[in-house]
Amino acid sequence: MSKILEKESLGPKINLIKLKVPHIVRKAKPGQFVILRIHERGERIPMSIADLDLENDILTIIFQEVGKSTAELATFKPGETLSDVIGPLGKPTPIKNYGTSVCVGGGIGIAPLHPIAKALKGCGNKVISIIGARSKELLFMEEEMRKISDELLITTDDGSYGTRGLVSEPLAEMLKNKKKIDFVMAIGPVPMMKAVCYVTKPYRIKTMVSLNPIMIDGTGMCGVCRVSVGGETKFACVDGPDFDGHKVDFDELSIRLKMYLKEEKIAMERYLSLMGKQ
Amino acid sequence: MEAKERLKIPRQRMPEQTPEQRKSNFFEVPLGYTPELAQKEALRCLQCKRPTCMDGCPVEIDIPGFIKLIEDEDFIGAAKKIKETNSLPAVCGRVCPQEDQCEKTCVLAKKFDPVAIGNLERFVADYEKDEGEIEIPKIEKKTGKKVAVVGSGPAGLTVAGDLVKMGHEVTVFELLHKAGGVLVYGIPEFRLPKAMVEAEVDYLRKLGVKIKLSWPVGASQTVDELFEEGYQVVFLGTGAGLPNFMHIPGENLCGIYSANEYLTRSNLMKAYAFPDHDTPIFSGKNVAVLGGGNTAMDAVRIGLRLGAKNAYIVYRRSRAEMPAREVEIHHAEEEGIKFHFLTTPIKYISNEDGWVTGMECLRMELGEPDASGRRRPVPIKGSNFIMEVDTVVVAIGNSSHPLVPRTTPGLEVNKWGNIIADLETGQTSRKGVFAGGDIVTGGATVILAAGAGKKSARAIDAYLKTL
């Protein structure tokens, strides 16, 4: 059981919650994740860590309402409890001084990118962050990212804020202009991570991505999160979630992420009709 | 009653749901003995002076003792008698392979049907539960010693129950959100109702065992940190949780599950009750389960209950080599599961959406015996054929769960990743660290894990006395 301390809306269908989970906060490292269950009939939902407050043992999670479970989670108020939170899971992102690191975050991917960028900055990297969303209202954590970046670039698909275009475009531009980049961390929707890797591959820049396949236990037991990396099958929950982006089979990941689209729709429709009746 | 008369009583069958009824529900298949049936079956026990049945019991139950109490209509007394040595009678009565253990060594087994010891164990455990208030046995004086048990499967629960009765302070750490390990994520409701597991876990709580759920030792804290927190012994019963795959082309297509995933969705997450429960499972029409063990039987019978038109077992050897219990194979056959023996898949075929639609298979024949003593299956050249499937469950075994071994320096493991431990005591290469169950032996049975827990509890108690 874990009580929600704070809750905030960061934009349309984007929410922030804070949980007090000392045993997780004390151990968690950037790149790791948690799994939560909202109630006794709930599924296990993997969630990225957006921030860790070590002084107060507080974990921040930022999530987008994409299906029934996240829509239901969004209705939780401060003081209400989640039935389970487990973590930290997965391997931490390898943090070291690479030199110049570019942190690229698309949409909800900005949340897990934040602690990684912070840690990269903390150990001496020059951090250039590129964050983007479909439109201005969907962009969050701008100030937090600005604070920990030497340079911050913003893109929106519709041009409502920052540069119009995709997050991979400023990166491509930098590389074309022969800017020296030693490390790239990219987190966001699969097509975005794929695009970033496509851009960096010809320059052979080490590019890590954080994958978000379907998971259940999140500890290596079920194997639903298997991804192909360099022709080998890996479990994202225990071998990742970070992988060398140049070796990831993003197309397979896209297909596997769609496995339960039909069921997700059924669950959502039923949930909405139940809500309507209340 | 004279032995001669006892021998005349036939073994009492346990009533079951008919195959027609049960193949579309998840309720338990055998319905349990009535008190009359149990007493009649108890009369078949010859009350041997030197009972050989007990040689076959890994948890040392006083078998003739509890059966005599059933005969005398003291069912609660019988339950207590079992619980003197076995904390999990409702579980063991259901899932132990008694035919290879107590019932195999029962003196009757040579000439007649053995006494239905498993059925009787289940009967008294259920009877005690139905009666309500379960009495707590005497607990030894508190020793002030602290033990951490990692994993709440049959090994961990047994260790915890035994040590708490000896007066030690026991905390169980479980990474899932429910206690029971394989008993809750692995074994289906129709074979082991989850309420039974919950009741056995509650019993341990009443004995004073603390259980911390959603607590991944290895990630939330290491074994070394447990010692720093003041635990004097750490018992590792972390099980064989890592699913094996065949590594053939197309294995990552949609519709292909590990047995662990298929079972976890259905059992732990109750996906069969989707959308009342949030976790979905794909209800395929043509479900193929690869493997021949109990897990494979469980998975294929889940596939059937989820609505498959055809539910197949695809096994590379023949029926005789199947490791599953005879009763499980029999139940599967009764329910209309189709068996493809001497068959192995070599690759998967998909549609444009990335879903599996077929499985290219080879026929096999049996050659010379292999290391396991079973005849090795050899592919027949050119025997390729295609099976139409939309769901595949890979049930070819599990490897040891790596979370704890990976994060515990100095803990020796063998080449399969199993923790090396003394089979009599559970002592590992690390002082104060004991281990038992599947994490030591590789995938085995509930009762062998419980037996290992029992031996380890004794060794841990002895070790704690030296501190």
Give the topology, please.
The complex is a heterodimer of chains A (278) and B (467).
Chain A: E1 2-11, E2 14-20, H1 22-25, E3 33-37, E4 45-48, E5 51-53, E6 58-64, H2 68-73, E7 81-82, E8 84-89, E9 100-106, H3 110-122, E10 126-133, H4 142-148, E11 151-156, E12 163-164, H5 168-176, E13 183-187, H6 190-200, E14 206-210, E15 226-229, E16 232-235, H7 236-239, E17 242-244, H8 250-257, H9 261-277
Parallel strand pairs in A: 9-10, 9-13, 10-11, 11-12, 13-14
Antiparallel strand pairs in A: 1-2, 1-7, 2-6, 3-4, 3-8, 5-6, 14-17, 15-16
Chain B: H1 3-8, H2 19-22, H3 35-42, H4 63-71, H5 75-83, H6 89-95, H7 102-105, H8 117-130, E1 146-150, H9 154-165, E2 169-173, H10 182-185, H11 194-207, E3 210-212, H12 223-228, E4 233-236, E5 242-243, E6 256-258, H13 259-268, E7 286-290, H14 294-305, E8 310-314, H15 326-334, E9 338-340, E10 343-350, E11 356-369, E12 375-379, E13 385-388, E14 391-394, E15 398-399, H16 403-406, E16 433-435, H17 438-441, H18 446-466
Parallel strand pairs in B: 1-2, 1-4, 2-3, 4-16, 6-14, 7-8, 7-14, 8-9
Antiparallel strand pairs in B: 5-15, 10-11, 11-12, 11-13
Q: What string gives the helices and strands of chain A in order?
A: EEHEEEEHEEEHEHEEHEHEEEHEHH
* Terminal CA distance of chain A: 26 Å
Global outline of chain A: globular
Structural class by SSE content of chain A: alpha/beta
Q: Low-confidence spans of chain B: pLDDT under 50, at least 5 residues?
A: none
The helix tally of chain B amounts to 18
